[in-house]
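Provenance and format

Records in this collection were gathered into a single text stream. Each protein contributes a sequence line and a token line. The two records reproduced below are adjacent in the stream.
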Amino acid sequence: MTYIIVIILSIIIVFTVLILSVLTTSKAYTFKHTIDPIDNTGDQPHNIEAQEKTKTDTSKEN
């Protein structure tokens, strides 16, 4: 009799985990991801000329 109770509890646990997994995955697929805009404050040079100028400026300081 006890093995039937164990089997029933096991089946209940398996279905509970399955339902929670499906709900979590469903919620993850419906989540809207956003991307932050690029910050153009001048911290990083965005073109080749600016990068080369930065390299030559730092070599002159040494």
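Adjacent record:
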Amino acid sequence: MVWTAHGIEAVQLPLPEEDKTRMRLRQRYRSLAEAAPPAVVRAAIDGVIALLEGKPIDLSGVVLALDSVGEFDRRVYDIARTIPPRQHDDLWRHRQTPWRR
């Protein structure tokens, strides 16, 4: 997970090898420095892990750093964050058309 003083900036799900995960993050964030996450970031990491394990976790309280995000994507984040836990699966299952930018 990549964070700034403004919040979570990026999440990279683990690749099969830890070195490849680090390399992927460094390709996008050249000045990246590894550090122990502060408590709020650790809580976000734990929440994502729990969500991926199928637990109904509400991540709407996680602060996101959206400074470099375009207006359209920002609106998508805002809407997605209003969807209650466990309903994301329903949206994926019932979608009629592919997502397009």
